[in-house]
Amino acid sequence: MPKNKFQAAVFGVIMSYAMAIGMEVYNVALREGVQLTPGGLSNMTNSVFLGALEEAWYMGLLVVLFSNLWGNRLGAAIGARWCDAGRDSPAFCQLMRQAGTVAVMCPTMSLAATILFYGILGGTPVFQLPAVWVGTVLKNFPMAFFWNMFAASPFTRWAFRRLFAVKG
After folding, report:
1. For residue range 62-121, what is the model confidence (pLDDT) as tens digits?
2. Contact, 147 vs 92, CB < 8 A?
3. SS3 label, residue 163
4. Handedness of CA 74, 79, 82, 84 (dihedral sign)
5. Could you say which DSSP state residue 167 is in?
6. Alpha-carbon gap, residue 145 to 135, rounded angstroms
7. What is the 3-state secondary structure (H, E, C) of 87-149?
8. Which structural domain, as residue segments, surrounds residue 53?
9. 3-state helix, strand, coil in the chain (%, to 5)
């Protein structure tokens, strides 16, 4: 969708913050003990959203940085391995690129969060951080995948079309 570097940068910032906010809501809710029950979410309060917004501003900056350094390129390369642009539909190729980007960015951001929240701020011993990182990836990957596919990406495309009056 972006036609030039400026538009690509705007698209990237919108996507980065859409992902950061969604993932922070998820992680703050887990830290506050919110649980999915047959009746809905138990213990969910507005403080989850406030905590998520407090963390999303700097985690979003990390997403922008890491996605521009390696996440977008590696995600596109992974997507290209599963999609033949000449044979497959553009929608399928887009989904494969998204999945590839999540496959790179989820472990990357989980590592950043592990170091920041468990290491620097949490006081977890350094030798435990690899195990905490693996657990964080396993916990976050399903949410990151589905949040990207069904919320962040559609929202980003919608917002981008509105900002730049792009059709389709």
Report:
1. 999 999 999 999 999 999 999 998 999 999 999 999 999 999 999 999 999 999 999 988
2. no
3. helix
4. negative
5. -
6. 16
7. CCCHHHHHHHHHHHHHHHHHHHHHHHHHHHHHHHCCCCCHHHHHHHHHHHHHHHHHHHHHHHH
8. 5-164
9. 80, 5, 15
Question: How many domains in the chain?
Answer: 1
- Identity (one letter) of the amino acid at 27? N
Structure tokens at 99: 């999945």
Q: How many residues does the chain have?
A: 168
pLDDT in tens, 114-165: 999 999 888 889 999 999 999 999 999 999 999 999 999 999 999 999 999 8
Chain centre to alpha carbon of residue 27: 12
Rounded-to-integer distance, Cα 144 and Cα 110, Å: 11
User: 44 has which bridge partners?
Assistant: none
Considering only CA atoms, which of 130, 125, 77 is closest in space to residue 100? 77
Query: Which amino acid, 8?
Result: A
